From TrEMBL:
A Pfam family recorded for this sequence: CPT
InterPro entries documented for this protein: CPT (IPR012853), P-loop_NTPase (IPR027417)
Entry protein name: Chloramphenicol phosphotransferase
Source lineage: Bacteria, Bacillati, Cyanobacteriota, Cyanophyceae, Nostocales
Amino acid sequence: MEQTHDLGQIIILNGTPRSGKSSIATAIQESFNGLWMNLGVDGFMQMTPARFLPGIGLRPGGERQDIEPLIPILYSAMYESIAAHSRLGINVVVDVGHHDAYAIKRGILVNCARRLDGLPVLFVGVRCPIEVIMERRWNTGQNMDTVLGSSVPHPIELWQSEVHIPGIYDMEVDTSLFSSAECVEIIRQQLANLPVPSAFQRLAALSAN
């Protein structure tokens, strides 16, 4: 079928839990021109049956090997949906936490990048120091993983060390330095100067193994 409309822009925000991705995604939806759909991890987890949770939100460490084989399939489904929206001219913002620290390497990020071949993607690394992450978790009551005598629980350390591998981005923002609104403005400015090749094009060229 002949393309009769412009492709929708895709912005993927990759970072740890509590790094500020969701706030940036919401600000993009509220302030950018046009329709922006959020097809991120939280929405897909809400659609996932309880027995398969946390689904694509499975944290690093290989602790749920029973559902691990499903994770690449769920990611593939999510990215196929992202691609479908873009091809229909709908803009998409995605807040997600990619990592490959499963019981075995899954090569999910590379596979996802290949599924967006030919589409306009801005891949944004959302950084935040672990001290600020911990403060945000305590302030929101999300400290259930804290181990007595440990200021930074091991799962949180794993997120911090694994989520930005291999570190190939079009741009990065630090939410300890900039507010959500400021991060959105930085992203807006970057969209006017999309790098060629994009980060997702470079990731797609890597081996998935």
